[in-house]
Amino acid sequence: MSHRVNVILKDEIWEALKTIPKGERSALINEALARWIELRELQTAAAELDRLRSTLRPAAGHSEEWIREDRNRH
Q1: Structural domain for 30, as ranges
Q2: How many C-beta neighbours within 10 Å does residue 20 have?
Q3: How far is CA 41 from each of CA 4, 28, 37, 44, 45, rounded to the nearest angstrom?
Q4: 2 in helix, strand or coil?
Q5: Is 72 part of a structural domain of the chain?
């Protein structure tokens, strides 16, 4: 389903958008917004991981030891 919206663009954005053929403008805007939304979601997830990381206690041992232990189990 598609939706028609009205937005206000800065003059320099409008001038750049006018160089895109009319039939391609909506696709370009949809793609740009989809990328922006994806980036925003990734940034939110990264911030949440950073927050969680700060609440965890450091694990005992070293990563090299954990890898050796895992290899020995298999």
Answers
A1: 22-54
A2: 13
A3: 24, 20, 6, 5, 6
A4: coil
A5: no
Find out whether 65 and 57 touch, Cβ atoms under 8 Å.
Answer: no
Over 90: is that where the pLDDT of 31 sits? yes
Over residues 37-57, the mean pLDDT reads: 95
Q: Is 31 within 8 Å of 39 (Cβ atoms)?
A: no
In a domain, 4, yes or no: no
Query: pTM score, two decimals?
Result: 0.67
With beta carbons less than 8 A apart as the criterion, state whether 28 and 20 touch.
yes
Of the candidates 27, 25, 5, the one whose C-alpha atom is nearest the C-alpha of residue 13 is 25
Could you give the number of structural domains in the chain?
1
